[in-house]
Amino acid sequence: MPAHILILDDDPDVATAARLLLRRRHGAVASLGDPSGLPALLAQGVPDVVLLDLNFTPGCIDGAEGLALLDLLRAQPKPPAVIAMTAYAGVPLAVAALQRGAVDFITKPWDNERLVATVDQALARRAAVRAPTAATELMGESNAMRELNALIASVAPTEANVMVLGENGVGKELVARAIHAQSRRAAGTLLAVDMGALPESTFESELFGHRKGAFTDARADRAGRFQAARGGSLFLDEIGNMPLAAQAKLLTALERREVTPIGADKPEAIDVRIISATNLDEARLFDPAVFRPDLLFRLNTIVLRVPPLRARRGDIALLLAHYLRVYEAQYGRPARTVAGAALDSLVRHDWPGNVRALRHACERAVILGQGAQYGLADFALGGPALPAATMTPAASNGSTNAEANASTFAPAFAPSCTDHDGTLDALERHAIASTLARFNGNISHAARTLGISRAALYRKLGKHGI
Ligand SMILES: Nc1ncnc2c1ncn2[C@@H]1O[C@H](COP(=O)(O)OP(=O)(O)OP(=O)(O)O)[C@@H](O)[C@H]1O
């Protein structure tokens, strides 16, 4: 008979203690010390709940092995509810596990009552369907947002090209989506292109398409983004990061309202509405050394400025309530309110990473908050949330939480932890999430610290669903 509950831990003492404790309550409890036996065990039947240690190989504390096992468990046709088990210092890792589909986590050594209650809840919740993640609706009741929404409503039905300006994470892409949704082109597609991420060598082929045989790798005809978005809108994101040579090619296409695929002998008419966005401040955008004025003139028929969150503090409570509800539903946590003093501080906070950072802070609070209400510490505004007990020695010597977090992850780069499939992926996700948290969601700083371009970071955020 398949085990009802499975304990996957290489420490026999841990496995025995958990088995004895849980057997009193739930008949069928099994344990497995060597994860290589997991596929065979799953072939016999999938357990209802798995208590999963995140580190197996001695010396590996990055959790990549556990996360890969979590993926395997989650990929089962009727996946078990997985409870991640970590040492105290592994709380950020537990957060990564939750984001990847674990239903809960427990730190070792555990409190017996808490372990039993966690397993009970996991069993109860197993059948529950996860709520969809977050709204793509542009929320806000502040005057600034009302004005912005009114402008969107009046501009959307026209064919005018719109340029959306604003800091990172303010909601520029949401504005673009709202314009498209309210436009006469709403039945067509809104195709987003990260202009900063297009390598110069493939810029034309990506945007304008190519014909079979036009260059070595052109094995078939390929439509460019302009053709693919025909009848709809093209969202040119990060337009301020385009090299000048690419700007010239884009300008020609917009002026002529036609594009010529590479290798084609005739141009093709284009039928798209252009919505563009950048976080460049206007002084830079109007600097001809950075951005061609003639291209700017084509793109910014209408300019919409999305104010930073600190300039519309009236929206903060609403956004907090919204994203807390979203993540409570997603993680199956009870609905809780924010304590009054915490709310005051959150409203006064400057949110350098804007709504994106607020959203991440809400996710952390839902995952880590233990009180009856959310307190300020749950939102970890200064960096990743590490409860005092999780501090590494470096942190207790006066370094910041962020540094403590970085030191927790440092061994993750030991080669012995990175040589199997999925491991690097998990490490990458981890590094990105912690760096973003460290910089309050600021994409530019995080990208610089990670040593990659902003565009590459965006791609990776999409890939990891962060
Ligand atoms: N007004 C809003 N209401 C609800 N969610 C919002 C709002 N503004 C932004 N968000 C959320 O914040 C996150 C960032 O939004 P978005 O990607 O649109 O910002 P952006 O300005 O395009 O960012 P970047 O310049 O960094 O690309 C998204 O998850 C989005 O859903």
UniProtKB/TrEMBL annotation:
Presence of the UniProt keyword Transcription regulation in the record: yes
Keywords: ATP-binding, Nucleotide-binding, Phosphoprotein, Transcription, Transcription regulation
Residue ranges of domain Response regulatory in the record: 4-123
Ranges for domain Sigma-54 factor interaction: 138-367
4-aspartylphosphate PTM sites in chain numbering: 53
PANTHER family assigned: ALGINATE BIOSYNTHESIS TRANSCRIPTIONAL REGULATORY PROTEIN ALGB, TRANSCRIPTIONAL REGULATORY PROTEIN
Protein name: Sigma-54 dependent transcriptional regulator
